[in-house]
Amino acid sequence: MSATAMSARAASKRRQELVGALFVNIMLALICLLWTIPTFGLLVSSFRDRDAITSSGWWTIFPHQEFIKASTISLPRTTAMDQPITIPELGVTVTDAQLQAGTPLPDGRSIKWESRRQRTIAVSTKQWTSNTNFTLDNYSSVLTGKTRNPDGTIQSDAGTDFSGPFLNSVAVAIPATVIPILIAAFAAYGFAWMRFPGRKILFTIIVALLVVPLQLALVPILRDYVGLKINGTFLAVWLAHTGFGLPLATYLLYNYISELPREILESAFIDGATPFTIFTRLILPLSAPALAAFAIFQFLWVWNDYLVALIFIGATPNVQVLTMLLANMVGTRGQDWHLLTAGAFISMLLPLVVFFSLQRFFVRGLMAGSVKG
Amino acid sequence: MARLTEIEPRRQAATQEGGVGRIVMALLALSVTLVALWLGFIFLRDYQNTAPKIVTTIVAIIWGVGGVAALFFSANFLIEQFSDTVKSFLRPLIFVGPAVLLLGWFLFLPVLRTLYFSFFNNDSTQFVGMENYIFAFTDRGMLESFRNNVLWMIFGTAGCVIFGLMVAVLADRSKFENLAKALIFMPMAISFVGASVIWRFVYYYSPPGEPQIGLLNAIVTGLGGQPQAWTSLLQPWNNLFLVVIMIWLQTGFAMVIFSSAIKGIPTDILEASRVDGATEFQVFFRIMIPAIQSTIITVTTTIIIFSLKIFDVVIVMTGGQYGTHVIATQFYRQLFTNLDNGKGSAVAIVLLLAVMPVVIYNVRQLSKQEGFR
What we know:
Chain A is α+β, with helices and mostly antiparallel strands and 373 residues long. Helix content of chain A is 62%, strand content 11%. Chain A has 3 domains: 3-46; 63-129; 163-367, Orthogonal Bundle (MetI-like fold), CATH 1.10.3720.10. The model of chain A has no long low-confidence stretch (mean pLDDT 81). Chains A and B meet through α1, α2, α5, α6 and α7 of A and α1, α2, α3, α5 and α6 of B.
């Protein structure tokens, strides 16, 4: 085979690879675009003012062609509506219906009634434009529960203040993340390194409970809470999230802790350390990656939870968390997109920050098997 | 061994020396912890409506997180004062006990109690036999929910798995792997309620002639079609527009797991088949898919379970109207709208039956595991 033939083949192979890479990247870009556009649209809208959101699509922030009023033509007030209307300035004859809907002219302009009663017609020309009036008003509205009207008056909207529910979500999510981790870590250590009667059957039950839907637990627990008078308190929600999160937490941490090298623990025992000091000084630091993985998992789960909050704090407005307020607003103010968009982003802020900064750990947590009830 | 004999006498001496005095002290520490926790509880219960929000939030976090840690510490301090035989008996109780108690209270007993309630009438005062189950399997609304859950299961799972696999394979060959994966994965950090707001905005319907601010209707009208009320009027296909939301949220999960499985396939196998002239499609279907088969099964199972329990999306998007009820929303409706404990419980048990095969599979896998005896 000649050298030129070989280099020609190499070149064709390289070209094939290049085409392949291009195909891969274009496909990937399309899917990513598809996945990102819904969130992007909401994000953009949350910075547009109230009227802009409802009168034009969010994509009009990009340069696009639009009919913009260039001049106004006044017809005689006596112009009859039931006959074709002649507009001498433009030299055309149109019907009332056409003017109501808006109709194009041969030269590319468009005419429409500006005021039918006043007999004035707006003449628009197609122009490049983009709606880039951004504002932070929506965010200040949902953080204070007060909306500034266009005329300058301040309107107070009950049930649109996200600052309180934001703090409630924090107060629910942090303990509901730490408590199950602590309890599960102790239990995982116990199952992995202690011998006691019933150990195997208890652990089997925990594994069986991994995928039990939490709906099963809601009726009985609600009864207990009503009996104990703790329904609608933070404690109630923490305990519920702890209980529902424990099987996965114990299982994940058991898998990790039982794999720790035996020698480390034994040498610590020989040095006279109690299991408790071994646990706090050795096990907890050594299992930091597993703890972090589950912590992120549980935090996102609790922060984003709606069902548990709805059932156990449903009737107590003061303890309401973000997801509940947002869901309520969808029901009661489904048209108020300026509040919904900003509110939705406030509710996503913290999980997105946690997610992007700790993504590595989160992925590891998912990998370790994530079937949750 | 020499060191062991040295240490033992010293430790025993310390225990004897402490004696009753130290046990009393440890008991005191435990009671102080309990009293402090009780006071914290009273504060939170009585002042959560009057004290500044930020104060109650901080107190709640410290109380919840610190309380559990303090309980573990003081309980352990107490048992360390007893003799070695008592200690080795009590220790597993401290380590495993809390987790077992909480799991018993929040998951294990509730399953039995829900089963019990499901044979009783709406306020659990009268035994009704199988009546609630007859309702659960014959009622028209329930049958519709079963149908919808099947739609969720088939289309939701297929969507997540196919897109997840596609992105994983494409990203594996792209230079933008991390960026693409982060974008697809991002919805995992968003709550179902937040996602519902995002997608309500995409599906938003305005009557014909008005500006369409929902992206989907804008595209449809832009192409000359009529705007549609996607989530309400197109029954039963409106369910699929809700399923899209789940696919959007959960594809990231499938992608991450598939991605790491694909990276685990030995590269020489892939290279060898390419050298032998296999096309990329053959490599994908004949080598990759069989190699990651078990991962595909795991992911599919996890997403199926997920789709069976779907709740938030439906309740926020449609509230179960327009023929979109699913089993989990029927449960909520029976329980909180119809106030029927019996029917609600029976519906919950139906959910349990649906996941039962997975429970059995998990337990079987555990007993096969070598490390656990």
